[in-house]
């Protein structure tokens, strides 16, 4: 009993730290692992056993394969076929949702979403539709598709790993009997009704701007044609849509300056402006981006500087900090040029703004420095691609054939899935589809640490009997039917996924599901399927899944926006999923 209390207390404390977000997830997980080991619940020789678990191996392999498929141009060739969509926004939304779901079934959901967003931007321009109409459904579609295959969702992989402890892991398409109909019905709902529930935000994309609502600062340089003009004349001269919300003159900050204020050389203007308009205004009026300062390095290195857009994830250490706090230019050799916050107008100096999850930043730097910066601070890249297919066809075909071969082997052979896809990842490296350096960069090691540690804790949670005790306490298995118990754990998986990551929910509830099945003396498969599908159905909040937080800043969504479309989708998931599980996975 004392072991059950210890492991339960450690897991509860771990979840509290996860929710508060004060410490990094991987650090919290490692501290929990060492705490459990200190109490003797894990032998010291086995403390890192989770890192070689087949689940972890498979996840690492899929991250590498996903990046290889994108880098080879295989996904580009598929995307090229989407030009038939025309300008009807609902039809565009359906096509994009199906495409996103399809990609997410085979590659990492975040990778699929990041790839589709630039296509959504172009389609929104064609139909003159707010970008916010597309992005939330696309984030949710990445959940739909991820649940269809074994490799599409980490939840599926984790649950399959727990099943392997008792019998054999799930097959490649075992989840499709439940997840695929849910996906189809959910997309139909979005097309008929759901899109009407999505708010149209002011900061959404317009015909002229890639993104609205960026905050930046520009300096009126010597020889600028706007010197001597009023702010109102400045607007007319540039012929772009933007606003001056502050003027800084001689270090004096003047908010909301009069449109009749005459501009002088050396004035700094704080602007709210779209990304495309920013470049046009800077060139037309000969303005200097205040934070686009020289980065000390070799001349050849500086020739390759690029400007890109990134999103701050919910686990980034930049949250709560300012650009000044981290001295981005001096320490990381990147310039913060502009910032945009979901649905809010910012009225501060850009260097003084405390960063938040979901903020979109425009940064400048060398591609290698930007890549390191993104990895260091757990950021999400948002960069519109120029579709150039020259020289990529052979690599794309080769990557597609190798991946298709791996899928066929996994479906028709008895080889362990993690061995098949680990070999596939290595083969892609060997034939040059992805470089060894990019292979290592494609792996999110903080996520791997989290998964490996939580698997260890989940095993201890089950082996000590704590999972069984929890099942008996909450499910009262002696007085209810297996169907009611299935419904309860399905609902618990769905609701917990809205506040915890799908990985955490799957790892915590899979042993509970197994204990419930054992107490009834029935097959654990329907309970495992419910946990897998439920933990991947985070639609009510932006914090339950990286895809949700990824689109928050770009689409201008607020926290409360998600439940309007998310609640009906979670109801569809439960009602449709419950009856499909009973039909295809009987007790």
Rough outline: globular
The major pleated sheet works out as: 9 strands, antiparallel
Helical stretch tally: 25
The count of domains is: 3
Q: Could you report the average pLDDT, rounded to the nearest whole number?
A: 80
How far the N terminus sits from the C terminus, by CA atoms, comes to 30 Å
Strand content: 5-15%
User: Roughly what percent helix?
Assistant: 55-70%
Number of beta strands = 9
Q: What's the alpha carbon Rg, rounded to whole Å?
A: 25 Å
* Computed structural class: alpha+beta
Low-confidence sequence ranges: 202-212, 298-302, 384-391
What keyword list fits this structure?
single chain, 587 residues, alpha+beta, Alpha-Beta Plaits, 3 domains, 9-stranded antiparallel sheet, 25 helices
Describe the structure.
The protein contains 25 helices and 9 strands. By secondary structure, it is α+β, with helices and mostly antiparallel strands. It folds into 3 domains: 2-203 and 440-584, no CATH class; 214-289, Regulator of K+ conductance, C-terminal domain (Alpha-Beta Plaits, 2-Layer Sandwich); 302-382, Alpha-Beta Plaits. Strands 1, 2, 3, 4, 5, 6, 7, 8 and 9 form a 9-stranded antiparallel β-sheet that branches. Strand 2 (242-249) and strand 3 (252-255) form a beta hairpin. The chain is globular, with a radius of gyration of 25 Å. The relative contact order is 0.15.
Summarize the topology.
Layout lengths: L1 H19 L4 H14 L15 H19 L1 H6 L9 H16 L4 H19 L4 H15 L7 H13 L9 H17 L21 E7 L10 H8 L3 E8 L2 E4 L12 E6 L1 H10 L2 E3 L9 H5 L2 E7 L10 H4 L1 H5 L2 E6 L19 E6 L1 H10 L2 E4 L10 H20 L4 H14 L5 H6 L3 H19 L2 H10 L6 H15 L5 H19 L4 H11 L10 H10 L6 H23 L3
Antiparallel strand pairs: 1-4, 1-5, 1-7, 2-3, 2-4, 6-8, 6-9, 7-8
Helix pairs in contact: 1-2, 2-19, 3-8, 3-16, 3-17, 5-6, 5-7, 5-9, 6-7, 7-9, 7-24, 8-22, 8-23, 9-25, 16-17, 19-22, 20-22, 21-22, 21-23, 21-25, 22-23, 23-25
């Amino acid at each position: 009993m004392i072991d059950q209390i210890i492991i339960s207390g450690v897991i509860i404390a771990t979840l509290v730290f996860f929710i508060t977000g004060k410490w990094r997830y991987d650090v919290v997980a490692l501290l929990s692992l060492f705490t459990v080991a200190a109490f003797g619940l894990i032998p010291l020789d086995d403390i890192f056993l989770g890192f070689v678990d087949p689940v972890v191996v498979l996840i690492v392999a899929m991250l590498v394969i996903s990046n290889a498929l994108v880098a080879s141009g295989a996904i580009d060739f598929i995307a090229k076929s989407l030009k038939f969509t025309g300008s009807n926004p609902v039809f565009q939304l359906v096509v994009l949702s199906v495409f996103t779901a399809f990609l997410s079934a085979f590659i990492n959901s975040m990778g699929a979403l990041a790839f589709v967003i630039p296509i959504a931007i172009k389609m929104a321009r064609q139909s003159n539709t707010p970008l916010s109409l597309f992005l939330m459904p696309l984030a949710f579609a990445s959940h739909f598709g991820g649940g269809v295959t074994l490799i599409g969702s980490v939840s599926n992989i984790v649950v399959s790993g727990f099943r392997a402890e008792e019998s054999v892991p799930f097959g490649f398409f075992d989840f499709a009997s439940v997840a695929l109909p849910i996906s189809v019905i959910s997309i139909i709902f979005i097309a008929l009704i759901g899109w009407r529930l999505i708010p149209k935000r002011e900061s959404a994309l317009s015909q002229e701007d890639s993104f609205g609502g960026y905050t930046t600062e520009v300096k009126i340089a010597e020889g600028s044609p706007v010197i001597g003009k009023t702010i109102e004349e400045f607007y007319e001269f540039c012929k772009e849509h933007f606003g001056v919300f502050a003027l800084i003159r001689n270090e004096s900050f003047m908010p909301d300056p009069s449109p009749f204020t005459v501009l002088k050389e050396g004035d700094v203007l704080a602007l709210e402006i779209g990304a495309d308009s920013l470049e046009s205004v800077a060139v037309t009026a000969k303005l200097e981006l205040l934070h686009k300062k020289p980065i000390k390095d070799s001349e050849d290195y500086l020739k390759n500087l690029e400007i890109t857009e990134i999103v701050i994830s919910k686990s980034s250490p930049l949250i709560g900090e300012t650009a000044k706090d981290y001295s981005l230019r001096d320490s990381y050799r990147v310039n913060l040029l502009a910032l945009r916050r979901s649905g809010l107008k910012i009225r501060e100096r850009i260097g003084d703004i405390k960063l938040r999850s979901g903020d979109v930043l425009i940064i400048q730097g060398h591609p290698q420095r930007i890549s390191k910066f993104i990895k260091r601070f757990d950021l999400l890249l948002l960069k519109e691609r120029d579709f150039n297919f020259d020289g990529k066809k052979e690599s794309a075909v080769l990557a597609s054939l190798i991946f298709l071969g791996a899928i066929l082997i996994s479906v028709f052979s008895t080889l362990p899935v993690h061995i098949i896809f680990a070999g596939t990842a290595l083969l892609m490296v060997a034939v040059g589809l992805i470089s060894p350096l990019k292979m290592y960069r494609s792996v999110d090691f903080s996520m791997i640490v989290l998964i490996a540690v939580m698997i260890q804790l989940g095993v201890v949670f089950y082996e000590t009997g704590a999972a069984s005790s929890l099942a008996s306490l909450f499910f009262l298995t002696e007085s209810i039917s297996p169907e009611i118990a299935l419904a309860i754990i399905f609902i618990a998986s769905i609701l917990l996924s809205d506040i915890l990551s799908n990985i955490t929910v799957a790892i915590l509830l899979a042993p509970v599901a197994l204990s419930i099945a054992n107490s009834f003396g029935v097959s654990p498969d329907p309970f495992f399927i419910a946990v897998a599908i439920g933990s991947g159905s985070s639609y009510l909040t932006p914090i339950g899944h990286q895809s949700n937080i990824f689109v928050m800043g770009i689409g201008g969504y607020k926290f409360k926006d998600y439940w309007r479309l998310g609640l009906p989708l979670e109801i569809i998931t439960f009602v449709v999923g419950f009856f499909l599980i009973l039909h295809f996975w009987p007790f």
